[in-house]
Amino acid sequence: MESLRHESRKNLFYLAPLRGVTDHIFRNIYERYFAKFDYLLTPFITTVRGTTVNPSHLRDINTDKNDSDRVIPQIIGNNADEFLVLASAIADLGYKSVNWNLGCPFPPVTRKKRGSGLLPYPELIESILEKVMKSIPLPLSIKVRIGLDDEKDIFKLIPVFNSFPLQEIIIHPRTGAQMYSGEINQVIFQECTNHCSHPVVYNGDIVTLKDFQEKSSQFPTINRWMLGRGIIKNPFLLQSINNRDFKGDPVVIRKFHDEIYQANSSVLCGQAHILGRMKELWIYLSESFSENPKFLKKILRSTSTSEYEKHVEKLFSQ
Ligand SMILES: Cc1cc2nc3c(=O)[nH]c(=O)nc-3n(C[C@H](O)[C@H](O)[C@H](O)COP(=O)(O)O)c2cc1C
Questions:
Q1: Whose CA is nearest to atom 31 of ligand 1?
Q2: CATH number assigned to the domain with residue range 12-242, chosen from the 4 options 3.20.20.70, 1.10.15.40, 3.40.50.11540, 3.40.190.10
Q3: What is the pLDDT of residue 292?
């Protein structure tokens, strides 16, 4: 099985998938204004029943809008046959690799034994992988949390992962129960890297250059880093990691925002959808403007696009 061509020492950066934020519009506009990632994971695509996948289900990964060498579509599901149908549709679009989501912490998902809801069931994961790995047309990587409720779930999973020719394991060292806050478990992450025979990608809470430097010295064997909320809270993050003296110009954030707003306005129907999408971005982007909480609250409370535009204008002209 072909694997990603990784130089051994160079750091590699991956854009984390954030459903509702990092769709193809975000991915393309981000890379145009800021920096290019080595790889970009898409928000998850759910497996579907049947033997074909409707093209509208694959809208975000339409290859006209994505670089199929660097974009890695992500699948969520727990049925091997359905997984294979979706993976084949993704291969047909020209992608080079696919990722399995074993991390999503949302109760409606985990209750169905999907995402991190599968983590307490290593035998089930093993039986899915046995079937999937026999005929998957693309290399497979896994994005995983350390457990659902128990941070030690991962230790029963690593031997399972080690027994299959997976491409890499992306670890977000929290449990599903922690959702997106609370302490990252550095000790367990380190143990995972000691026991995992596949390349490991670190993911979690890198928001500043200092965070990256700390994690790099803490985990000296890791050279693959996935950045998520930090990229939206601090869009210049990747540039400052690549060049420590880099100083970002806030005008670029304005242009980036405006282009995302225009693109969403042209593809989404109705003000509520457009505002919903933009507010999701502002939840994180607002950290670049933490000295202006008053305007941010107004942006998040806007009920029409004209109100939204007025408050955004005020924020950027401060
Ligand atoms: C709004 C939101 C949506 C997310 N959607 C996905 C997703 O579709 N697939 C996935 O694997 N992780 C998803 N995640 C998790 C992130 O990819 C990442 O693992 C997590 O935010 C921790 O990394 P960070 O601290 O760098 O953001 C999501 C996180 C957030 C906050």
A1: 18
A2: 3.20.20.70
A3: 67
